[in-house]
Structure formats: C-alpha cells, structure tokens
Amino acid sequence: MEVHIVFYILSLIIAVFSVMAVTSGRLIRSATYLLFVLLATAGLYLILGYQYLFAVQTAVYAGGIMVLFIFAILLTQRPGGRITPESVKQRVFAIILSVAGAFFSGFIIISNIGRVSHLVDMKEIDSRHIGMTLMGTGKFQYLMPFEVISVLLLACIVGAIMIARKRS
Amino acid sequence: MNFLLIFILIPMLMMVGLFFANNRKQINLITLSGSVLLLLSAIGLTFLYLHQRAIGNTAEMLFITDVPWYPAFNIHFLVGVDGISVIMLLLSSIIVFASVLVSWKIDTMPKEYFIWFSLLSAGAFGFFISLDLFTLFFFLEMSLVPKFLLIGIWGSGKKEYSAFKLALMVMGGSVLVLFGILGIYYFSGAESMNLLELAKHTIPLNIQYYLFVSSFVGFGIIGAMFPFHSWVPDGHSSAPTSVSMFLSGISMKLGAYGAFRVAIFLLPEAAHQLAWIFLILAAFSVFYGAFTALAQTDLKYINAYASISHCGLLFFAFLIFNETAITGAFLQMISHGLITALFFATIGMIYSRTHTRMINDMNGLMKVIPFIGVSFTIAGLASLGLPGFSGFIAEMTIFVGAFQETDLLHRVLTLIAATSIVITAVYILRVVGKVLFGTITNKHHLEFADATWWERVSVIVLVIAIAGLGSAPMLFSNMINDSLQPVLNNLMR
Amino acid sequence: MQYTLLILVLPLLAFVVLGLVDSRWKARTAGTIGTTVMGIVAILAYYTAWSYFTTANPGGVYQKFIPFQMEWMKFSDQLHIDLGILIDPISVMMLVVVSTVSLMVHIYSLRYMEGEKGFERYYAFLSLFSFSMLGLVVATNIFQMYIFWELVGVSSYLLIGFYYTKPEAVAASKKAFIITRFADLFFLIGIFLLSYYTRTFDFDVLNSGNATVFAGTAGLSFLGLSLMNWIMALIFIGGAGKSAMFPMHIWLPDAMEGPTPVSALIHAATMVVAGVYLVARLFPVYYFFAPEVLHGIAYIGIFTALFSAVIACTQTDIKRVLAYSTISQIGFMMVGLGVSGMGGHHGLGYMASMFHLFTHAMFKALLFLGAGSVIHAVHSNEMNKMGGLRKYLPVTHITFLIACLAIAGIPPFSGFFSKDEILSAAFEFNPYLGSLLIFIAGLTAFYMFRLYYGIFWTKEYKHEHIPHESPLAMLLPLIFLALVTVFAGFIPFGKFVTNDGADYHIHIDLVTASVSVAVAAVAIAISTIMYRKENKISDRIVSSFSVFFKIVVHKFYIDELYMFITKKIVFRLISAPIAWFDRTLVNGTINSFATVTQWTSLQIKGIQTGRVQQYAFVFLLSTLLIAALIIFI
Amino acid sequence: MNYSSFLQMQEELSLLVVIVILLIYDIFAGEKSLRFFQPVAIVLFSIHTILNCIPHHPFEIAGGMYHYVPMLTYVKTILNLGTLIIFLQSQHWLNGEESINRRGEFYFLTLSTLFGMYIMLSAGHFLLFIIGIETASIPMATLVAFNKYTHKSAEAGAKYILSSVFASGLSLFGISMIYGTTGTLYFDDLSGLLNGTPIELMAFVFFVVGLFFKISLVPFHLWTPDVYEGAPTNITSYLSVVSKGSAVFVLFTLFIKVFGNMIDQWQAILYGIIIISITLANLFAIRQQNMKRFLAFSSISQAGYLLLGVISGSATGMSSLVYYLLVYMFSNLAIFGVVSVIEDRTGKINIRDYNALYSTNPKLSMVMALALFSLAGIPPFAGFFSKFFIFSAAFQKGFYILVLIALINTIVSLYYYLLVVRAMFFNTNDHPVESIKSDVSLKISLIICTVAILLIGGFSVVYQQIALLGFGI
Amino acid sequence: MGEFFSKLFSGTIPLEAYIVVSLIMFFSGIYGFLSRKSLLMILISIELILNSIDINFAVFNRYLYPGNMEGFFFALFTIAISACETAVAIAIVINIYRNLNNVEVDSMTELREPSANETEIKEVNE
C-alpha cells in the first residue's frame, strides 16, 4: 500500500519533470528537472529492491553527471540567459514523432509482454553477492565487461581532456 | 606452359617493358616486337591447330589448360581454342599489329598510350581463349578502363562525352552479361563454370527466357546492336585512330562472340523461342545502320554506322541458327574486323593530314596521297562486298544461310537485311567520290605527303589479310565449320 | 583443254603486276605487257574455239567440257561455289568476242591513252576487266557468274572513273555502279531462291531441263505468279541492270565519261551484253519453267529498243548516240531471246540473238573506236564541233561507214544477217512485234547516218589546228574490226551456236529481209537529205514537234526521276529522318538516363540539410517505419 | 574464478600491451626520445599485427561472454592492417604544428577504438557487445574533433557524438526489450529463444539500427557525409574502413547467431535497405565536389554492396564479405592516402582541384585511379573479384532482382568514379596541384595498397584461406 | 470506482506501470533531442533516454527474471557508459563553444550538402 503510493508519487515526478526538463526555456532549470527525474529513478530502484543501483544512480548520475552539466552550463551560458526557443514546426514534428513512437512501442510492449508477472519477494541482494557476480568469470558473472569498460573510461578521459584542453 | 598463355603474357610483358622504357626508341621497339610476336604466335597457332586436326584430334577444344582458380565458385582458369577462337585470335593479332604501326608516331604520352593499349589487347586475347564463364567475363570487363582512358586522353572532338558514354554503356552491357552468367551458373546446377560442361545441363525454359534476354542484350550492347548502339558512333569518332581500329575491329566482336558462346550456346531453348525479337532488331539494325551512314558527313561516323550495319548482320546471322549462316557470321566477324580496321586506319591517316573528317571539306585527295586513297578505296570496295575481298564471302554465306529458312518472317527480314548491299554501295561510293576524287579545292591539301613506311606496312598487312580471306575462304570456313558442330547439336536438342 | 585456265590467269597476273608497280615502270612497258598478255589470251581463245568447234560435236551435238573446276567456298554439303571453266558453244563464242575486242582495245589504247597520267593504272584496270569478263563467260555455275559479274561491275566503275578529277566522270562511275548493284541485288536474291529450291548453283544441272531439279518450287506461287517465274524474273533484273534495259538504262549514256576505248570494250561490246548472255545461259530454265518471264523479256527488249532509238535521234554527243544505239541493239538481242523456242527452227531467236551479239560486238566496237579516233582528232564529243572530217580522217571515215552500214542492216555487212534472223524470229512470234522491230531498225539506220553525216559530212567546223588521222596503232584495230564486220555475216553461225547444240542451217527469209532492207534504205535516204548538207529541214522538224522533242532530248526525264527518288526520297525521306531518329531518340534515350539520374540527384539533395536533429528525426522515423512494416506486414 | 582463462584473449591483450607501452612512453619519455614515438608506435603495432595473424582454435571464456572463432583473426587482421596503413598515412599530418603535441593521444585513442572493435567482434553477450561498440564510438568522436581548432572538425565531432549517442540509445532500448522477452543476453542462449514475436521484432529493429548507423546505411547515413567531411582525413579513412568494416562483420554474425530464427524478417529489411542505400548514395555521389563527401557517399554505397554478403546469410556470403572488406579496405585506403597527402600539403580537397593531377603527380594519380577502378569493380583489380563473389553469394540465395538492381547501380558508381579519373587525367588546369614529394611512410602505405589491389584478385590463395574457415561463427 | 482504486493500491505494482513510466521518460528524451536548440539541452535529453533504459533493465530483471542479475548489471554498466558519453559530449560541446561562441545546434550547419549554386553540375551530355 505504502509502496504503491510511493511508486505513484515517483512516477508522477518522473513523468512531469521529464516533460518539463525537455520543455523548459532555461537551461539551469532543465538541469534541475533532470536531477529530479534521476533521483526519482533512484527511488524506483529502491522500490525494486536494488539498493546498490540506487546508490550508484545517486552517486554517478545525480552526483557526477549533474556536476558536469552544471559546469558546462556555467561555462557556456551567461547567467539567466534564455536560450532561443525552438520553432513551432520543429516542435510539432518532434511531438508527433515522439508521441507516435511512444504509443507504438507502448502498444507493442503492453500487448505482447506476455508473461504475467508477480513480484517474488526477494531478500536484499547483499554486496558480497554483487561483488562475487561482478568479479566472477563464469556465466552470469561480469568480470570481463568490468575490465573492458575500464579501457572505455580511460579512453574517454583521455579524449575528453584532449578536446577540452586549452591551446598550450 | 600452354601455348595459348603466350597471348596474354606478351601484352603483359609489353606493359612491364613499357613501364620501364624511358625513350621513344625503346617504346617503339617493345610495342613493335610485341605485336610482331603476337602475330607470329597467332599464325603459329593456326598451323598448330590445323596440324592437330589433321592428325585426327577431334576434341571440341584444343590446347586446354585447366587450373582451378576459385574452387569455391568452381572458377577455373580455363583456356582452350577451337577453330573459331583461333581465327579470332588471328584477327586480333593482325589488328593489334596494324594499330601499333598506325600509332607509331603518337606524340602525347606514348608510354602510357601503349601500356593501356596492351592491356586492351590482353583483354581481347584473353576473352577469345577463355572457356570459363568467369574468365570470359573477366577479360571482357578488363578492356573497359583502357578504352575509357584511351579515348578520353588521346581522343579528339567531344572525347570526354564519348569516353563516358562508351564506358557506361559497355558497363551496362557487362552488367547484364554478368547477371546472365550468374543465372546460367546457378540455375544449370552444374558444378562448373566451364562452358562445355554447362552446355550439357538444361536450364528450365521459363528461367532461360530471362537469362537469355539479359545476356543477349548485354552482349548486344557491346556488339552494338540496335537500339543499343549509340556508344558506337561517338566512341569511334572520338577515339584515336588505333583505338578506333581496335574498338570496331575487335571490341565489337567481343559482343557478338560472347552472344554466341554464352547466350546462344548455353541457352539454346530460349534462343530458339526468343530469336524472332532479336532477329527483327538485328535485321533492322542492318538496314538502319546503312541508312544512317548515308546521312552522315563525318568520315568516322560513316564508318561507325557502317559498323553498326555490318555487326547487325552478324547478330542476324547468329539468330538464324543454321550452320551456313553462323559460319557466315564468323566470317563476317573477321571480315568486318579487318575491313573496318583498314577503314579507320586510312581515315586516321587522312585526318592526320587534313585535320578534318568532314567529307565536305575534302576532295581530290587521291591525287596527293594516292597510297592512302587506294587503300581507302580498297577498304570501301571490300566493305561493299566486292568478290575477292572478305566482305563478299561473309555476306554471301550469311545470306545463303538466311535463305534456308522459308517462313515469312525470315524471308522478309532477310530481304530487309539484303537491301544493305545496295545502300552500302551508295554511302561508300559517295564518300570515295567526295573525298578522293574530283579536284583539290583546298590549297593546303596539295602539300600532303603520302603514307609513311609504318602506315604502308600497316595498311598492306590488312589488305593482304582481307584479300587472303576473300580469295581463299575455305581454309577459314572449314575451321569455323569444324567447331560449329557441338554448338549446333546443342542448339537442336 | 587445261590451257584454258591460262586465259583467266594471265590477265589476272597482268592486273596484279601492273597494279603493284604503279608508276614505277615506263608507261610503254606497262602497255606492252598488258597488250602482250591480251594477245596471248586472244590466241588461246582462238585456239580453244578452233579446237572446240572442230572436235566437240561427235554426234552433231556440241558437248560441254569442264576442263577445270575447284571448290572455292562451301556453304553446305550441297551448296558450294566452284570456280571452273565451262566450255560450250556460247562461252567459246564469247571468249572469242571478248578477247578480240579486248585485244583491239589494248592495241588501240597504246596510242589513244598515250601521255595520260595513270597509264599503268589504265592497263591494270583493262586487265582486271578482261579477267573478270572472261571469268564471267566461262562460269560453270551461277554463283561464279555472279562473282565475276560483280568484278566486271567494279572494273567498269574504275574505268569510267578513270579521269577521277572530272566530277562528271566520278558521278557517272558512281551512278553506273550503284544502278547495276541495285539490279544485282535482285539477281542475288534470285540466285539465293533458286539455289535454295534446287540445291545447286550448277548451270549443268539447272539447264538439264530436268523437272525434278525444280520440284521444290512446284505449286509455290506468290501474287499469282509461280515461284519459278519470280525467281527467273529476279535473275533477269540483274541482267537487265547490266545490259541497261529500261528502266535501268540511265547509267550507260553517262558511262561515256570514261575513256573511249573503255566504252568500246565495256559499254558496247562485252559487259553490257552480259545480261543477254545470262539469259542465254539460263535459256532452258526460262523456256521450260518461266515462259511468261521469257515473253516479258521480249517486251522489255522491244520497248527499250524503241525508246532508246528515239532518244538516239536527238543526241548530239557522238558517244551518247552510240550508247543509246547500244541499248537499242541489246534490246534487239533480248527480243531475239524472248521470242525464241527450243531447238531447231524454234530456236532461231536464240541463235539470232547470239549472232547479233557477236556481230554487234564487232561493229559497235568499231564504231566506238572510230568515234575515239574522231575525238582524238578534234578533242570534242560534240557533233557540232565536227563535220567534214572525211578528208582528214579517211581510214576512220571508211571504217565508220562500214560499221554504220552494218548496224543499219544493209547487206552484205554482218549486221544485216544477224538482225534479219531476229526479225524473222520476231515475226514468227508475233507479226506486230516484228513490224515494230523493223520500224526500230529503220530508226537505227536513220540516227546512225545522222551521226555519220554529222561527223564526216555537213559543214566543216573551224578547227584551231587541222585534224589529222590517227596513228597506225589506232588504225589497225579499226581496219581489223572493219574486216570482221564485212565478213562476219557469212559465218554459218547456226552451225556453231544453237540452244540445243545441234546444227541449224541459217536461211534468209526473203520477205522480211527485203522489207527491212527497204525500210533501212528509206531511213538512210531521209537521213541523207536532212543531214548530208547543212540545211534547215531538221530544225524545222524539231520546231514543229518542239514539246515532244524537248522531252526526248531530256531522255524522257528518266534521270530526273531517278534523282528525285534518290535525293528526295532516299536521302530526305528515309535516310535523314533515320539519322535524326538515331541522334535524337535513340541517342536521346541513352542520354536521358544520364540526365534523369543527374536531375534526381539534384532533387534529393534536400535530404542532407546538415542539421543533426533532422538526421535524428529521419533516423527515428525510419526505425519506427521499419518496425511497423516488419511487424504488421 | 579462473582468471588465467583471460590469457587466451591474446589479440586483445597484445593490443592492450601496445596501448599501455605507448601511453607510458608518451607520458614519461623526454622531448628527445619522443622523436621516435611514431616509428616506435608503428613498429609495435606491426609486431602486434604480425603476431596475431594466424588463426588458432576456437574457444570461449567468461561463460560464453567472449567468443573466439578463427574467422575473427582474419577480420581483426584486416582491421589491424587498415589501422596500420592509416598510421603510415598520417605521419606527415601528425607531425604538423597543430597536432604534434597530441600525437600520443591520437595513437591512444585510435588503438582504444580498435580495442573496442575487437571486443565488439568477440562479444558473446550484449553487455560486452555494447561496451565494445561504445568503446569504438565514443573516443571516435574525440578523434573526429581532433583538429579541434577548426570549425569543421569541431562540428563534425559534435554531430558524430550526438548521432552516435542517439543511435546507441535506440539500440539499448532494443536490447532492453530483448532482455525483457528472453531473460538472457548471452548470444548462445538467445538464438533459441527469439522467434519473431512483435515485441521481439520491434526490439530487433531498434537494436539493429544502431549497427546500421555505424555501417552508415541509408536512411541512417545522414551524419556520414558531414562527419567525413569535417573529420581529419586520416580519421575519415579510419571511420570508413575500420569502423565500418567491423560493424558489417558484427552485423552478419549477430544476424546469424542471435537472430537466426528471424531470417525472413531481417532479409526483408536488408533487401530494402540495400536498394535504397546503394541507389541513394550513388545519386548523391555523382554531384559531389568535395572529395571527402564524395568518398563518404561512395562508402555508403559500398556498404550496400557489403550487405549483399550479409543478406545471403550463407558461408559463401561470409567469406565473400570478409574478402570484400579486405579489398575495400585496400582500395579505399589507397584513395584516402592520396586525398590526405594532397589535402595535407596543399589544402585542396575539391574534385576540381584534382584537374590535371596526372601531369604533376603521375604516381599519385595512378594509384588513385587503380584504387577507383578497384572500387568500381573493374578487372583485373581486386575489386572485380570481390564484387563478383558478393553478387554470386546473393544470387545463390535467390536475390535475383536485388542483384540486378545492385548491378545496375554499379554503372552509376562507375560513372562517378570515372569523374575523378576524368579530373585527374583528362582535364586541364591552370593551377594544378604542385608536384608532391611524399614521405616514406606514405609511400610504403600506397605501395602496400597498390600491390594488394593488383594481386589479391589474381592470386586466389587469399580468398581460399578465408573460405577455408567457412562460416566461422 | 472503489474497486478500481483498491486494485491500484493492492497486490504488486504491475510491470506495465514501470514500462509506461520508462516510455514516457524515453520519449520525452526523444522529443527533447529532436526539438531543443541548445546542445546542452540535447545532452539532457540523452540522459533521459539512457536513464529510462536503465529502468527497463532493472524492472525486467526484478519482475521477470529474478534468478540472476543480468538486467541489474546491464543497468549498472549503462550508467557508466552514459557517464562516459556525457563526459566526452560535454568536452565536445565546450569545444564547440570555443569555436562558435555559442552552443546552438542550428549554428552547426557548415557541414552540409552544398546548394546548387555552390557547385557546378556538369552534365554528362554537353
């Protein structure tokens, strides 16, 4: 019962702020709405019982990425400056396509998802299990991606620095 | 080491040699010796072939080399010759020799010119000895680039347009041919791309239709059959002399030869069923080319349309499907190849002196350049089918064959095609009369020098070949005839 | 009789040698070689004739010999072209005619053509012509005949166009070649059809009269005429083209642009009678299987004879007059063949035609050579530049007169005998036809004497330098031919040449003969009155028939009609539109592929706006579309 | 926890070693020794290439997350060769004033993307696959923006990263749906579970457009010309050859391995995509004036031809595809080599600037012409063979009309390739490109390409080696 | 009515609800991507897109396939990937800002198909 209420509140937050994030006229507001959406998403993970994901979501997204955004906004925007509004035509086309896309995928998914689902109660996933899964080399264990993504991260850091570095 | 490979190796070696040549003398030496060697090899091959036949070798193809090339697609490097290929090789080597001599003094980038020319000839030689669909197509396509460059760089007039047109249309032809080839290979169910092997398999008739149309039209484009001929006038007229000679002497024959070796030989049932369409086109082509030639004023255009007319006759003969007509078709191939080469050679010689090809700008040239004039006249007379020259033999054989078919369609078409005999005379004599006879009105024309030694040699070789075929046709017709039997058997199955 | 092969080989060799040396030898050497070779050929021909006619009729019927035959080209097992030599009465007769006239012309030309540029070339062409003509007459099969037929055509082309710097000569040579070629097309089609149904080219088989040979054509007809009639008519068209029968006669007068000895050889004595020879050669086939065509030949012959005789009366160029007279005389020969039957007395027409061919060759060659001599003297062809030449050119005058008398049919000159046989044959066939023929014979006498008087009598033309008689080398042939003309009539021709090979005794039909001689005499008399002295009679007559005369002078506007057909119809209405069609439609279609591609390329460039959101839009839209398509379809 | 099993991934490990050595070298070496940085990099990478060109036995590790099949060695070798040639070609550019202090990053980023492609190729799990594909594309954006002070390069980088992220967003959405219906992301398990229900089809389409984006097929190609034009030329060639090649191969393996049950559907999709890709790209290519845009459209159309091998879905198709990739790589890199050297030395990039190139730079234009002919599929150059095989492969499986359309399109493609040839050989120019003296490494790269173009076709051993492995999935 | 509400507030929260939420987020992101003018706004939209996918994975894992943790880890790694993307994208945006002095997406149109008057189209047929 409480779960339901929480879920609905979170859903509402996500839905409303998602839309607001992409319609707001000010960048900083958009970023703030995005933050709300991300945090609400983290809340959903909590409902699902994925505390670890909740933590990561909050830390990486709401913490790391948002900071990046704020920096970028501050770097590129004059304070309080509004961005040029998009043309009506472009908006209309974008709305038509995204609504059509949403209905299309929603229809396909909802009508075909097939399996009736019951949330099986599950004991909290402990960090040990998560750690074992992350560090294992067997099936359903993820050491390999973990190692590989390190290359990605390193490459992105190097690349980002190279691009963002000022002319020496 | 198979004897036939010489025909591909010599041009290749010529290319390599030319690549390292660094002065005019070396270039000429390499090309001349190469082309002489080719000519000698072709003559040698003819004798070897006759010898093999004389000692009773009745194999369909002789001197076969069969090297698996791409086993996954059953592609073999498979070469071999029958009488038809032998004479086509002979023809090609004669024309190559003559062309090399004609372009003896070419002044811009001679090295590149001959490199591309060698590649061009390698393609033709390779085509005529190939027995594998893939190698056949390989060599067919190989000549595309050299043609484009030779016309585009060394040509005259609206050369770029012509080069593009030629390249694209010939590519169009090749594309259809390739489609046909793929179809033949996959639908026959044969585990081979060997022509002889494929001939033993029967493809369902409804599929044959598509494949036949595709491959025949494809080869028809290359062989300049109406209405796919429009690259010919532009291409030939813009090309430098020796390339014009090669184009109409050999390249157009690739189309006809291919149509015979691939479309008709491998798809006999469809060929029978659909022959009438192409027969009409071919007969019309004969008539049409001749009449169009009548209205032209540019020497090369005249000869180009004449070629269309004569090559139309060739396709016409193939589609009659009897031994005599097909023999005639091959005779016409050689004959037309030689005659048109002679024509283009002399036109080139005239052009190099007058710098115009418009017949209205010239007259009375016989007086100042009698050798070239006589050669031109000989080409003309041979072209209009004077007995003693090759054209006569070829046309007569075709028509005798054509008259063997009694139904109305054949009769009417044969009569239409036969009118070209007269029209040919009209346009040839018109040109000869305008260009060579009469009195010279242009003062500059009085200073022309007659043919140089290389021009003379080139012309004489061609004339000897034309007259030789014209006076001793049996030698060649027997060689063709010997080799036709398998095809006819296949055709009549 | 293997040596007969030499008759062909020697001129060919001469041609090749003379053609190759071009102008590196002295003119005289070339002429001597040509003439010597021709002399040898003539001797061989006479020897052949002598030995053939003396030995080859053991049973009273002449046998055929084929001393030489080789397969030259094989079309199929049954159809092959052989090159061979057929010796039978008419071929032997022709050998004699051709070699004699050719030899005379060779000798004559030594001086006549002296100093011309291209003398060697001239002799080379003469040799080529002799070779081709001899090959034609000895042909063993119809295809061999066609081959040489074409070769004589081309040598005629080359010789007419000998003075290639003269536009008229070039035009004339072209015209001659194209018209004969046009006719040859029908000939060729005839040959193809004939050979298809009979499975042979051989004269021997064709002429055997064996109906089984033609069994293939039985019951086949087209437009109401039997197939054999069609075939033989087509073949005849070929002959008509060469022999300048109406309406394909127009090339012959123009052909007079060639050197005069050439006209004598080709366009009077030998090549132009090839058509007659062709019909004679295939006579049994015509007679047995295409009698309608044979009759048609007679009618065409007589029409042509009349038609050209009328024109001949009005021409002023002496060579043209002779040319029309030639056409007319060939018409006579055609009539002879056309009315002939088979064997014995029925075969009279055939025999007469051949006889006339023989005599005509001699006296017409004589006339031309004489005319050449005159032209040599006055350097003009026009009659009004001549007159009163008899004192300057006595030998020419006498020989020319002899020839005129011969052609006019005055006994005892050879023309009388041969023409008379034709007349009687025609009378037997159809009296009206015969009467008309006599009238034409009268016309012939009239215009020939008009010519004769115009050249040698009438008012003297003021020449810049005094004309002088031709050198001996030119006179010898004249004298020789005059002698032949005088005496040839007494040859018992029927003994040698008949269509069944059997002996036929010629007898003069007195009624016909007297009537024709009378007509001729009257005609000569009229001519004498009108043209011997300069007077106004002819002008008056001309002015009273001015319209008709104008039409005739313009040769009934046939040339103009041809010009109209070729220039207006073939060039403007067929050729030019086709060329236009080619450049615009066919070429345009091909180019339009390129244009359409370019155009499309230009039209669609809007897709690539450079705006990344639009890219994403297309991206997503395509994704959804593909998904929808794949799911719902 | 059998960590030593990871040692089997010798290709990736050896590449990592190269990357790490170079990184350390770049960071810690002094100014003097850095002069040898580029030669060292090339030598190290060549050693890596040579060490890893022999196929060995197939294996899988990490519970099937990483697959190795012998065919992968060939594909990776092709990618290695391509990268090596690009390294050789980029020497002069990298030594330029602007880029010399960033060359370490250039090598590091290029090799990282290459590493990403390795992972993508070997992946047996969608997670690894996605990480691989992202590793191949995110650093790529920084490479595209490498000439960061030029407007075009910066703009191209932005366009690339935006499009790429958008595409990967859709792709991930698709994967999430696949997961939703099957419950697994292992390729081996998936193949039996996907049967083409609507949701799976939708997931499939969303997923696969991400790959189409990387291969730049119409209509997912719109970024291609812009990015190709803006990126540094050597990066453009890297994009068009290495990045595209790996994606096509992966597409094929995924289609067969994972979506094998949906063959009818994906063949239908490919059918349409191939036709519009080839046709539209050809239509665009004929009007291009900028050489790099031109090559972009040419490579889109070539991608269409590559998919002919994919659509056949057969072993022949696979070997033809790999062979085509090889030939395409050599031909394209030869062209890009010439284009890059000319752009680098003279700044000229328009086709019009190539007028009369032959008169001043005969060797360069000759190489370029040969490569263009090879791309157009003219014998005796290798492109002819690869085209023939790929057409055969598609024809064999019954795509007759498709093959015919593709064949007809080769005429158009011949036309625009000949346009360049015309510019170089026929046209005249008042200010032709001056005679260029190319550096040794460029020469080597062009010689390698030319020799390959001339010989790969005639000597069938190359194809036979590839075909020997058959499907190789 | 009450029944409906009680259904809404009892039992397990239906899977579809999560899907709907995630779809809304996803397509808002799409809308933002397609329509916003600022590059940073577009990046924000991308974050929405990626985030919605994380939800999908987590929900599917939890509801349908709780046996192992495929979705969980996928979401985890996706977060990492999106962090990378954002980092690089922001670097590039800053670079754009340096070059163009703004971050408007519409100013990025130097690279595009040249218009007809910029290129001269040479017809094949002269």
Strand and helix layout:
The complex is a heteropentamer of chains A (168), B (493), C (633), D (473) and E (126).
Chain A: H1 2-21, H2 27-48, H3 51-76, H4 88-112, H5 127-135, H6 143-164
Helix pairs in contact in A: 1-2, 2-3
Chain C: H1 4-21, H2 27-55, E1 65-74, E2 80-87, H3 89-112, H4 119-137, H5 142-160, H6 167-198, H7 203-206, E3 221-222, E4 225-226, H8 227-242, H9 251-254, H10 260-269, H11 274-281, H12 283-289, H13 291-312, H14 318-339, H15 348-378, H16 394-408, H17 414-429, H18 431-456, H19 472-487, H20 493-496, H21 510-531, H22 537-544, H23 546-553, H24 558-603, H25 612-632
Antiparallel strand pairs in C: 1-2, 3-4
Helix pairs in contact in C: 1-2, 1-4, 2-3, 2-4, 3-4, 3-10, 3-15, 3-19, 4-5, 5-6, 6-8, 8-11, 8-13, 10-14, 10-15, 12-13, 13-14, 13-18, 14-15, 14-17, 14-18, 15-16, 15-17, 15-19, 16-18, 16-19, 17-18, 17-21, 18-21
Chain E: H1 2-8, H2 15-35, H3 39-63, H4 70-100
Helix pairs in contact in E: 2-3, 3-4
What share of the residues of chain C lie within helices?
over 70%
Strand composition percent of chain B: under 5%
Helix content of chain B: over 70%
The best one-word shape of chain C is globular
Described by the principal axes of the CA atoms, the overall outline of chain B is globular
- Strand content of chain C is under 5%
**Major sheet of chain C: order of its strands?**
1-2
Question: How many structural domains of chain B?
Answer: 1
Q: Outline the biggest β-sheet of chain B.
A: 2 strands, antiparallel
Total number of strands of chain C:
4
End-to-end C-alpha gap of chain B: 36 Å
For the terminal residues of chain C, how far apart are their CA atoms?
A: 91 Å
Query: What string gives the helices and strands of chain C in order?
Result: HHEEHHHHHEEHHHHHHHHHHHHHHHHHH
Describe this structure in words.
With 168 residues, chain A is an all-alpha fold. In chain A, 74% of the residues lie in helices and 0% in strands. Chain A is globular and about 50 Å long. Chain A starts with a helix and ends with a helix. The model of chain A has no long low-confidence stretch (mean pLDDT 84). Chain B contains 20 helices and two strands. Chain B has 493 residues and is mostly helical. The mean pLDDT of chain B is 89. In chain B, 68% of the residues are buried. With 126 residues, chain E is mainly alpha-helical. Helix content of chain E is 67%, strand content 0%. Chain E contains four helices and no strands. Chain E has helices at residues 2-8, 15-35, 39-63, 70-100. The longest helix of chain E is centred in the C-terminal third of the chain and has 31 residues, at 70-100. Residues 117-126 of chain E have low confidence and may be disordered. The interface between A and E is large, with 83 and 72 residues.
